[in-house]
């Protein structure tokens, strides 16, 4: 059996496997503002194409909302990846603790679930 002290907030370092973004949202926003100014200029100089310019402006107006959604989804995905990594680390710790003969190997998983507020309330549960 391995003798070691555990702290309630044990940290396990993981590598970041998040791929770099394909699209630079700041650059996309800059190009969008430029395109909107160009369309506005053409709209003033060629008013006979008003309907086309309005359609282009409407399409360009979607970019900020799409960028915000991408930013939100990236943050959500990063959180999900971190949750997965923490759960995987807890699972590995349980197996290692079991192999080392620790008296309560499930404590690692219990700690992780408790930190998330997902530990079953039933004190008689098997965890």
Characterization of the model:
With 127 residues, the chain is an all-alpha fold. The chain has one domain. It has 3 helices and no strands. Helix 1 (25-45) runs antiparallel to helix 2 (50-99). The radius of gyration is 26 Å and the shape is rod-shaped. It starts with 24 loop residues before the first helix and ends in a 12-residue tail after the last helix. The mean pLDDT is 86.
Name some characteristics of this structure.
127 residues; mainly alpha; 3 helices; 63% helix; 0% strand
Write the layout of secondary structure elements.
Layout: H1 25-45, H2 50-99, H3 107-115
Helix pairs in contact: 1-2, 2-3
Count of separate DSSP helical elements:
3
Major sheet: none
Let me know the number of strands. 0
Report strand %: under 5%
Low-confidence stretches: none
Instruction: Please state the overall shape, judged from the principal axes of the Cα atoms.
Output: rod-shaped
Round the mean pLDDT to the nearest integer and report it: 86
Question: What's the gyration radius in Å?
Answer: 26 Å
How many individual domains?
1
Order of helices and strands: HHH
Short summary:
The protein is an all-alpha fold and 127 residues long.
């Amino acid at each position: 059996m391995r003798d070691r002290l555990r702290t309630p907030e044990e940290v396990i370092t993981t590598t970041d496997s998040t791929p770099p973004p394909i699209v630079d949202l700041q650059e996309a926003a800059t190009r969008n503002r430029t395109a909107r100014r160009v369309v506005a200029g053409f709209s003033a100089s060629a008013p006979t194409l008003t309907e086309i310019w309005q359609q282009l402006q409407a399409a360009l107006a979607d970019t900020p909302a799409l960028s915000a959604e991408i930013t939100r989804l990236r943050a959500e995905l990063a959180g999900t990846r971190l949750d997965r990594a923490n759960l995987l680390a807890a699972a590995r710790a349980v197996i290692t603790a079991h192999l080392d003969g620790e008296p309560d190997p499930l404590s690692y998983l219990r700690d992780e679930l408790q930190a998330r507020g997902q530990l079953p309330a039933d004190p008689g549960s098997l965890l």
